[in-house]
TrEMBL record:
Domain of life assignment: Eukaryota
A Pfam cross-reference name: b-prop_At3g26010-like
Natural source organism: Arabidopsis thaliana x Arabidopsis arenosa
Lineage: Eukaryota, Viridiplantae, Streptophyta, Embryophyta, Tracheophyta
Domain spans labelled F-box protein At3g26010-like beta-propeller: 20-304
Protein name: F-box protein At3g26010-like beta-propeller domain-containing protein
């Protein structure tokens, strides 16, 4: 809890790209696909997926199969939901699987209706986690929001809200939650917008909107930014290229475009996402070779990796889970489990 120690600790690790543990997780069953751990910051002896799995086992024991990690947060928190997600009055938890902290979210009358978890957003200041907000959809596509600051649920509507559910696990980043709709739009809601009485919503078209990309649309993150990649025909040449974009102030900026070797030999790869610390490194899974492939999106060089932890089922979405530089304590506004 010492600000001096926290600042000193973070300054010692801020310049190392290998100082934080991270994992690529399957969006369907929560299985860990790729992991980097035992890094300089914390020296963890297990991967993040292992900590999450062991935490669920310890927390719920024989009832582990009744609960699922529904959302991951950019400050290391996870949102746990009781299964099935449409059960009325189900249990919800916010936890830090590394520090083993866990908070049970209080029930509310609205939770007795059909509702679906969306994600968890957070607000931090000077290394302190001030507040988290758990967000759910109800059956009328309104937002149910729980605030740890007030300990209360609220029912919210947002301006310009699209009448379409998400197609991949939403991503929480810098107090906002991002997801992709079934109409192939990017949607962001800012849970901590100032100067307004309602939650701010932004709908953004993808940079390849109107084209016919070869990959399913999905997000990943890199160094605090939302990333998107796909294979499209580039204007002027009509040549297939793998393009990578970064979302910056509501606009998609092209990071790189290359012609990877597998485009000409037939597409037998599943995209996994971007390296969370290196925007030029993207990951694919070779269905033919059952091997992880990393590609340098600047020069086209590729490497068959050996970090694979489990097999991959085609058609799933994947997202990165990154341990932050500081293990934030969950605000002690409710009873700890």
């Amino acid at each position: 809890d010492s600000p001096y120690f926290r600042d000193l600790f973070q300054s010692m690790h801020q310049n190392s790209h290998t100082s934080s543990s991270w994992s690529l997780m399957s969006g369907k069953d929560g299985e860990e696909v790729v992991a980097q751990y035992g890094c300089n910051t914390w020296g963890l002896e297990q991967s993040l997926g292992s900590y999450i799995s062991s935490f669920l086992t310890k927390m719920f024991e024989t009832e582990k199969n009744k609960y699922i990690v529904w959302a991951y947060n950019d400050v290391g928190l996870i949102l746990i939901s009781e299964l099935p997600i449409w059960v009325t009055n189900r249990s919800l938890y916010v936890a830090n699987p590394v520090s083993q902290e866990c908070v049970e979210i209080p029930s509310h009358a609205h939770l007795k209706e059909v509702s679906c978890p969306l994600g968890i957003a957070t607000r931090t200041e000077n290394g302190i986690l001030l507040d988290y907000r758990v967000v759910l959809f109800d059956e009328d596509l309104r937002l149910l929001i729980y605030s740890s600051h007030t300990g209360l649920w609220s029912l919210n509507t947002v301006d310009s809200y699209p009448s379409a559910l998400y197609t991949q696990s939403p991503i929480s980043l810098h107090g906002s939650i991002h997801w992709i709709t079934s109409t192939s739009h990017s949607v962001s809601i800012d849970l901590y917008a100032t100067g307004t009485s309602s939650v701010q919503c932004r709908v953004t078209s993808f940079p390849d909107f109107g084209q016919h990309p070869k990959l399913n649309r999905s997000f990943s993150t890199c160094q605090g930014s939302l990333m998107y990649m796909n294979i499209i025909k580039v204007d002027g040449t009509l040549e297939d290229k793998l393009c990578v974009w970064r979302l910056n102030s509501g606009e998609w900026q092209l990071v790189s475009e290359i012609t990877p070797p597998f485009i000409d030999t037939g597409f037998e790869y599943i995209q996994l996402g971007t390296n969370p610390f290196d925007a030029k490194t993207v990951y694919f899974w070779s269905m033919k070779n059952q091997t992880l492939l990393s590609i340098n999106s600047h020069n086209g060089k590729f490497v068959f990796e050996t970090k694979l932890l489990s097999s991959i089922n085609p058609g799933l979405f994947f997202h990165s889970v990154v341990l932050p530089q500081w293990l934030y304590r969950i605000p002690n506004t409710m009873r700890m489990v």
